[in-house]
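Recap from last week: sequence in, structure out.
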Amino acid sequence: MSTNTDNTQSREHHNNLLEILQKHKVIENLVHKQDMPNHDLVETIVRKENLVQLQQALNHLPPIDIARILEQVAQDDQLLIWAQLSDDIKRAVLAHAPLSVLQILGKKEYKTEKYRIKAFNLSDGRLREIPIQTSQDLVETKPVWVDMVAPTFEERLWVGGIYGIEFPDPDRLSDLESSVFM
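Predicted structure tokens:
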């Protein structure tokens, strides 16, 4: 009985979050079009109130549900939701988010490579590539080598979390430091 109650509550929180996102768009659009005194102040206050509601709704969802919602909503909504999460929640969500969501959240231009993270295992004395699309794919494989091509912050976090490694931000390393470290 408890599982049914949990599932019902999870669906209610999920639906509530989607309603808040929709309401946020409508209200933001209406307020933006209004001609009134102190327009910027009113717009800022309304936006902050909506974001507080969004944060409260997100606080009631487990990370796996947030990852599922991120898969279902438009890119702008993904970025809006992501900006409301604490770093701890972001780390937990990353474990469940597919690479397609990670790419949007990374806010970077992407190369045309099909997979940005590649894992390799040893098969008959040769390296064999294992396509990695989600963090779960990486957890399930037992690679002897992992290759990351221009990983986003989120990708560095979830790969590092799986292997207990903290990757430096390549934007903060000098050319010499990055070649020595990597």
